[in-house]
Protein: Type II toxin-antitoxin system VapC family toxin
Organism: Nonomuraea bangladeshensis
Amino acid sequence: MSDHVPAPYILDAGVLAEIARGDADLIGLVLDYDRIGQPLVISALTAAGALLDAPGEEASALLSGLTAFEHVQVAALDGVEQAALLAQMIQRTGVDPWDAHVAALALMATCPILTLDRSRWERTAAGLDDPLYFIEIADPGE
C-alpha cells in the first residue's frame, strides 16, 4: 500500500454555504473524499463567510460536523504575519476576506480550490502573479 498523500482540496465559501444549507450531494461528496483519504481544508474565515450566506444553528452544526471527518482540517490565521499576508491578498484581488484566505492557502500549499463557480476564481487569479488551481463541481442537474 502506498504512503502517498494527495494534495488537499480547499473548500470555498460557495461549497461551504451549500453544505450549510444541507445539500446532500455535496455532503456526500465530502464523505466520499474522506473515505478515500482525500485531504480537505476548510478556512475558518471561509466558514464564517458561508454562515453569513446560510445562517442558523442547523447550518452551523452542519459545518461543525465536517470537522469530525478524519481527513478534514480547519485552517485558521496564525498570527500577525499571516494577517498581513491576508490583507495584501485582499488589496491585490479585491475579494472578500474569506475568499482571500482560500486563495492564500491555495497559493501557499499549491492546492486546488474546490468550487461551484469557476469564474469566481478565474477573476481572482487574474490579480495574482502565481496561478490558482481550481476544480469546479459539476451540478448533476445541469
